[in-house]
Amino acid sequence: MTRYLVRRTLHAVLLLAGVSLLTFLFTALVPGNYFDEMKMNPQISPETVAALRAKYGVDQPLAFRYVHWVGGLLHGDLGFSFAYNTPVGPLLRVRAANTLLLTSVAMLLAWGVALPLGIWSAGRENGWPDHLITLATGALLIVPDLVLALGLLLVAVRSGWLPAGGMAAVGAEPTTWAALGRDYALHLLLPVTALVLSCAPMLVRHVRAAMLDVLDSSFLRAARGHGIPPRRLLYGYALRAAANPLLALFGFSIGTLLSGSLIIEVVMSWPGLGPFLLEAILGRDLYVVIGGVLLSTAFLVAGNLVADVLLYWADPRIRAERGNG
Amino acid sequence: MAPILEVRDLHIAYPSRSGTPVRALAGVDFSLSSGEILGILGESGSGKSTLAAALLNLLPPQGRISRGSVCFEGIDLLAADEGRLREIRGARISLIHQEPSIALHPTMRVRAQVDEVVRAHLNTAGGTRRAKTDAALGAVFGSEAGSLGARYPHELSGGQRQRVLIAQAIACGPSILIADEPTASLDSVTQAGIFALFGELQRSLGLALILITHNPALLAGFAHRVLVLYAGGIAELGPAADVISQPKHPYTKALLDSLPPWPTPAASTTARLPMIPGDLPDLAAPSLACRFEPRCPVRMEVCNTREPAATALGPAHSVSCFKFGG
Amino acid sequence: MISGADRAMEPLLTVESLVKRYTPRGFGGGRGGVTALDGVSFSIAEGSTLAIAGASGSGKSTLALCLACLERPASGQIRLAGRELTTLTETQLRAVRPQMQLVFQDPSSSLNPRLTAFEIVTEPFAAQSRFSASERAARARALFERAGLSFQSATRTAAEFSGGQRQRLAIARALALEPRVLILDEALSGLDASVQAQVANLLLDLQEASRLTFVFITHDLAMASRMADRIAVLDRGRIAETGPMDEVLRQPAHASTRALIAATPQWKAELRQQADT
Predict the structure, then answer these.
(1) With a cut of 50, which residues of chain B have pLDDT below it?
(2) What does the domain layout of chain B look like in residue ranges?
């Protein structure tokens, strides 16, 4: 088990290194940089710009800058934001926490809805619940996430039931924990709903497919022949055997949810990594971009690692394949 | 001795792509007494697996039971409700599936799988349940029951997996065990071991055993009675010794003749084995003649006109062939 | 070592001291490992059949794969008509493969269920890029006939055939490239008892007509006794004993041979008789 973990962690580190290099290259290769914008501003003298450029080492060769940045990373320093004039680390931390909150809640809700629906649908294959669910998921899949988010936003604004953006009420400060919690919840509702609606239909379909696959197997028929009650057959046998593809799906869904969240955050004005990253990309704020991308990748990798570990623990055949270690 | 299982006039068909239903079983009648070993001899396509499934009303949804009854302890299993059937399956009548490699849950330990069967039927405290599971595993694995029980199915050999299936089947003390080709995928040495186990269990637990196989040699010296199934109908039914040493039905005869005998120095390998030419009849094509007629070495005029009825040759021996009446 | 030499010439197939090991996959090299074949040697004269009998785990399947050059042995020699096979490169092997063909136990997994019977039988032609389309069709027809299958069924997919017919198809495919040796790896074991005789007779007919050499690998001694006049018993990767069929069966020298004989259900009665006398 430890050998497996070590190997996977090594892979993860290599992956992050690769991503950081690629991001660095892309942002460096993109035409223009932060200081070009500055140059166009008549209020700032060319000398200031030149001095800033020297300070941030923008004119240094690419390789040098990358190595320098990696060196800083190993000390916990993610670089400096040109736009905010502060270290990138603390900036990202706050934003990352908000994104994490959003995606975790959405993840829990999406799976909390998809799993029972998928199982129920598979259990009543070709019955009316199954057809209904297939229709609904199909419809939701066709609608682009952006349209869904905008639609929800429209409903919120028109009805005034829900706040149309932000994470907390501006102005009035909630005093009690309960009020604070309620405030957060209200603000979370819209973006979470958008995320769940975009992610859950695919999950439902996959859960249903995985269950149907297992429900057809010989060992299930054999268990039925032993008089095992249907509820136990569904959960104790079928779901258990379907855990394999479902856990893989779990790892995959973290990725889709994360990428979906970045867009939804922008639309719903949720103060997470999404809007921040967008702003930084448009402004060529180099180190923020790299830091942000790296962080998102790290979340993705961590999520997949968790899924892999769960899979390793859940399926003895995978354990056997890897040898006892 | 009163029979514990009575099958009467069983007719089962499946829909086919062409529209005409495929007759899997057409008029099967037999009974089973307590402690008896009945061998059902049939090749693929004879309807033997359909029969095995039908005995516990476990047919796939497309299977249509057009006629007949399966009576166990006074209840017709084909008419019973699902709740009743669930009580009987695994506890009073157990079915051992064909392929041990796919009949076990891949990610559950062996012991847990046996335990599940016990749990499904006995609402007793944990101690009694554990005892029953241990007893079942002990009966099939002997002293290795502890270590083998902790393993997963993919860590066991074919023969060991088959033993697990047997343990699941006997765990709740059934009165009837149905084994559908229990050793088809095993080599001869393992096969012999499994049959020895069957014999042991049958004696010690007083089980009635229905053994379904395509190999008549397995039934010789083991089964009490033999039922020969051909194309969905009974060709011959009688005491094992009689059916195997003096087969009456041409199919049984041809089948037993095609088995390789003990080699003698005089026998040359260029001599061909006697065989049954042709293939099984198409069960979707309705035919009024005897099903075996196209391949029968001793066919007569009348065989083409209608199906022979079962003729009694003795108190316990019957044949469906015009050569003996019908 | 050919005992009772009734053929004066060099054996067609000779195997010497074949060793094959399997090591488990693992991070940082394998611990332990299994020696599937531990110095196996035998020879077969052209036109005859050698039965190789063993229980599961004896190394039979590994032997079949090594003979068909689908696995490379760790050491040892395989000589076909005097030519050493284990040292050949893949390209060189390609020219030799047609001469030794393999028939597996389970026709439902060794035949692609989506291909038609015609496509299955002509697959080897395509693989070796031989013959024009019309030639292939003519050859396919001949192969169907030899295997006792009606050519009208050529357009059906493999899934629509019965077990015995599928095995005939597998045999027809194996004959496509006109091999000299057929390696039959439990080729009859998956068939119903009633069908085994049919396919066994087919094989014997083919052997007589084309002077084929068979390596008949099985655990079923009864079938082996009808197909071969010589037998080698495999036990845990080694040949326990070799000799003429009826001699080995009547006077088995090795415990594993005795176990195999005792486990053969067809001979229960005879054995009991023997034990009683």
Answers:
(1) none
(2) 1-35+42-90+223-258+273-326
Q: What pLDDT does C272 receive?
A: 67
Is B265 close to C197, i.e. CB distance below 8 A? no
Q: Say which residues have a Cβ less than 8 Å from residue A81's Cβ, sequence separation at least 6.
A: A87, A88, A91, A280, A285, A287, A288
Q: What is the pLDDT of residues A24-59, one digit of tens each?
A: 888 777 777 777 766 777 777 778 777 777 766 666
Tens-place pLDDT, residues A195-237: 999 999 999 999 999 999 898 888 998 999 999 998 899 888 9
Residues from chain A contacting residue B121 (CB–CB below 8 Å): 227
Measured in angstroms, the CA of B22 and the nearest CA of chain A are apart by 22
Q: Which residue of B has its CA nearest to A240?
A: B107
Which chains border B (3 or more CB–CB pairs < 8 Å)? A, C
Q: pLDDT tens digit string along A281-290?
A: 888 787 888 8
Nearest CA in chain A to B106: A241
Contacts of B167 in chain A (CB under 8 A): none
C222/chain B closest Cα distance in angstroms: 6
Q: Architecture of B1-35+42-90+223-258+273-326 per CATH?
A: 3-Layer(aba) Sandwich (3.40)
Using alpha carbons, select from B61, B103, B81, B140 the residue that is nearest to residue A223.
B103
* Complex ipTM value: 0.85
Give B 252-281 residues with CB within 8 A of chain C. Answer: 254-255, 258-265, 267, 269-270, 272-277, 279-280
B9: left (phi over 0), alpha (psi -120 to 50) or beta: left
Beta strands (DSSP E) in chain C are 13-22, 34-44, 49-53, 75-80, 83-84, 100-103, 181-185, 213-218, 230-235, 238-244
